[in-house]
Amino acid sequence: MSSLEQMYQAVILDHAKHPVGRGLAEVPEGHLAGESHQVNPTCGDEVTLRVDVSVDAAGSTVAAVSWEGQGCSISQASTSVMTELVTGRDLADVARLDTIFHDLMSSRGKGLDDDEALDALGDATAFTGVSQYPARIKCALLGWAALKDSLARSGALAG
């Protein structure tokens, strides 16, 4: 195993053991809220994710993401990494990150040639190796699907 693969494995294990955003949090008054429950029927992983969106004159921002879930370390770590990555970002940036992560998951282990995109993903690049295993891609995308659905349910994407 290369040192890069070892680093990626360490990131995934760290986020699986110490997940960011675990525990559904209340959304403050005046913020938009959305919640989604997603299940990966292939392996039984599931996540319930709640998004807190603040809206002001400058636009809409993901103020917080909280979630509860169970499943493999890949689904749990991916949701944790995604939570850390999107919190504090405006919705256009979140949509861009979602697209980049989906592109990474479609790379079949080759990764992305775009250094700027890889930099934007930060720790999420640790899932490059996961993209070699089609059955595991759904695990890595579970939290992202819940986020996208939660944002749609919050009404933040309207207009």
Report what the structure shows.
Helix 1 crosses helix 2 (73-86), helix 2 crosses helix 5 (134-154) and helix 3 runs antiparallel to helix 5. The protein has a single domain (3-154), classed as Sufe protein. Chain: A, CATH 3.90.1010. The protein has 5 helices and 3 strands. The protein has helices at 3-17, 73-86, 91-105, 115-121, 134-154, and strands spanning 32-39, 46-56, 59-70. Strands 1-2-3 form a 3-stranded antiparallel sheet. The chain has 159 residues and is of the alpha+beta class.
Average pLDDT taken over every residue: 94
- What percentage of amino acids are in beta strands? 15-25%
Through-space gap between termini: 48 Å
The first-level CATH class name: Alpha Beta
CATH-defined topology: Sufe protein. Chain: A
CATH architecture: Alpha-Beta Complex
Overall body shape: globular
Rg estimate, integer Å: 15 Å
Percent of residues in helices comes to: 40-55%
Total strands: 3
> What oligomeric arrangement do these chains adopt?
single chain
Total helical segments: 5
Order of helices and strands: HEEEHHHH
Unreliable runs: none
Number of domains: 1
Biggest beta sheet summary: 3 strands, antiparallel
Trace the largest sheet across and list its strands: 1-2-3
Labels describing this entry:
Sufe protein. Chain: A, 5 helices
Write the layout of secondary structure elements.
Blueprint: H1 3-17, E1 32-39, E2 46-56, E3 59-70, H2 73-86, H3 91-105, H4 115-121, H5 134-154
Antiparallel strand pairs: 1-2, 2-3
What is the gist of this entry?
The chain has 5 helices and 3 strands, in the order H-E-E-E-H-H-H-H. It has a 3-stranded antiparallel beta sheet with strand order 1-2-3.
